[in-house]
Design brief:
Layout (H helix, E strand, L loop, with lengths): L4 H10 L17 H33 L2 H18 L17 E4 L5 H17 L3 E3 L15 H4 L2 H7 L5 E3 L4 H6 L5 E3 L7 H8 L8 E4 L13 H14 L4 H15 L5 E4 L4 H7 L7 H13 L10 H6 L7 H10 L8 E3 L7 H11 L3 E2 L1 H4 L2 H5 L5 H14 L2 E4 L4 H12 L10 H12 L5 H11 L28 H4 L17
Parallel strand pairs: 1-2, 1-5, 2-3, 4-5, 6-7, 6-9, 7-8
Helix pairs in contact: 2-3, 4-9, 10-18, 11-12, 14-15, 18-19, 20-21
Subcellular location: Membrane
Main location: membrane
Pathway: Glycan metabolism
């Protein structure tokens, strides 16, 4: 831009005390507004261009789903969801009480055995007015899962949601840790005990020991003969306080959504896994080599007391899981069609795809989590069997029909959870009678039509309908399990006494 000489001369004279510097043309009054307007215009256009490119990238990410773009897209979705999410519920008033001591617990077993144990221990702490330390999870069992409590459950929610009942802390205070280092009592409370045992035999110990450590927690509280409030607290812990972590919840919900998008589905808890077969001694359908392998595994674990087991005796007593081949016949007899979508809720099936061949031939729409999810989604759960089990637990609870082939801890807890949610259909197989029918059909004694009708008739009243838990005096281990049928928590809503008008199951 050309500058008039008289203007330059005038400016030079005015700035003689400022090293005689000539200002740039941008400082001239006539050009100042236009230059600022240009800068502002360039900035606005650049911003519009950058955001347009970013939005296009996100849109492409939705189609191609590379992990980086997918992550960015999901992040912005999450932000939008957070913006409309309701505020968190206010905390319940904290229960104020004089603590009689600190209770530490180390859970043993798999995920669902530990889950039931946590419910028991919270209730014991409440009854004895103790301070509970967040439970430690089993890391030394067959599964060798290194997960801590907060890797599986939402610890903050667990502590906050029970604050009106019991004081729960993440760990013992350091000062107390040092003080009780040599005075910590470790014990295994007696299994299937009532509140009387804890009140009369456990509580007095806290007057001598400030901290007591329960090193075994499975089935340490009775099924029956307990106050209703005691039972209802167990339900509250199980169905409300023990919430999975956001990471597990997100993936479990995704699995359920993917299945439901394809229609109704059956969750088949096929407990035909190596540990189950080895420790139960059930080798029906296995080769001699496999049976020997399972036996060696049983002997390799000294804590498992039973070593010599006759498989066929166990099977005839209904104490073995159904084989995949038997499960195929039973599902067909129950009336499930070939196009039924079946989700296999289990770990690795012993014998892998060779043993699943018959079941897959009968029901081609068999899926597992590994088939539905991106490998990257499951990578974070590898070598964490309890976290994997949590995914199967969520899908099983959400299924249209749940069918366990063995009544282990997962089967029982899923059954109870579905009862609590409104008696969703669970087909509870009578394995003792089933193996008799299976043998009669397979050796040609009865035809397929008779086999199918007998199987359906046998299970008409085994669909998870409302009912009261059976008690067996002096034989608590043979009773109906509390967590499979927590009738104290559901029978106020429905009639559990066999009235046909109020005992239908969601189908």
């Amino acid at each position: 831009m050309e500058v008039r000489s008289d203007v330059v001369h005038h400016l030079r004279n005015d700035n003689s005390n400022n090293n005689n510097k000539i200002p740039s043309s941008s400082s001239l009054p006539s050009s100042l507004p236009r230059t600022r307007l240009q800068v502002w215009f360039i900035r606005v256009c650049s911003s519009i261009l950058v955001w347009t490119l970013f939005i296009q990238l996100v849109a492409v990410g939705e189609l191609w789903q590379p992990h980086l773009l997918k992550g960015l897209s999901n992040h912005f979705k999450a932000v939008r969801l957070e913006e409309v999410a309701p505020p968190p519920a206010p905390l319940l008033p904290q229960r104020v009480y004089k603590s009689n001591g600190y209770l530490k617990v180390s859970c043993n077993g798999g995920l669902n055995q530990m889950r039931a144990a946590i419910c028991d221990m919270v209730t014991v702490a409440r009854f004895l007015n103790l301070t509970l330390v967040v439970p430690e999870l089993d890391k030394t069992s067959f599964w060798a899962d290194p997960s801590n409590f907060d890797d599986i459950f939402d610890m903050k929610h667990f502590i906050d949601s029970l604050r009106d009942e019991v004081h729960i802390i993440k760990r013992l205070p350091k000062r107390l840790n040092r003080k009780v280092a040599n005075q910590l009592l470790e014990m295994s409370p007696v299994s299937w005990s009532t509140e009387k045992y804890y009140l009369e035999q456990v509580l007095p110990l806290f007057s001598k020991y400030k901290v007591i450590h329960f090193n075994k927690t499975d089935a340490r509280v009775a099924n029956n003969g307990l106050p209703v409030d005691f039972q209802k607290l167990r339900c509250r812990v199980n169905y409300q306080a023990l919430k999975f972590t956001p990471r597990i919840n997100a993936l479990g919900n995704k699995l359920g959504r993917l299945l439901k998008e394809k229609g109704t589905f059956v969750a088949l808890h096929l407990r035909y896994e190596m540990d189950m077969l080895a420790f139960s001694g059930c080798t029906h359908g296995c080769t001699e080599t496999e049976a020997e392998e399972l036996k060696r595994m049983r002997y390799a674990y000294p804590w498992w007391r039973e070593k010599e087991i006759v498989s066929e005796e166990r099977r005839s007593q209904g104490l073995c899981p159904l084989t995949p081949e038997e499960a195929a016949l039973v599902l067909q007899a129950l009336g499930f069609h070939r196009d039924t979508q079946i989700y296999i809720a289990s770990g690795e099936i012993y014998g892998n795809e060779r043993r699943l061949a018959t079941l897959r031939a009968a029901f081609p729409r068999i899926v597992k989590k590994e088939m539905l999810l991106d490998p990257m989604d499951l990578q974070q759960f590898q070598n964490h069997s309890s976290q994997m089990a949590a995914l199967d637990f969520m899908v099983s609870v959400a299924s249209d029909t749940f069918i366990p082939t063995y009544d282990g801890n997962m089967a029982k807890l899923v059954e109870g959870h579905r009862r609590y949610l409104g008696f969703h259909k669970s087909i509870l197989l009578d394995r003792r009678k089933l193996v008799e029918l299976l043998d009669l059909y397979q050796n040609g004694t009865i035809p397929l039509g008779r086999f199918s009708s007998d199987v359906r008739l046998m299970h008409e009243k085994r669909l998870g309908q409302p009912s009261r838990r059976k008690a067996i005096v002096d034989k608590p281990k043979e009773e109906d399990y509390f967590y499979a049928n927590p009738h104290e928590c559901v029978c106020e809503r429905v009639n559990c006494d066999g009235n046909p008008g109020n005992s239908s199951v969601n189908r």
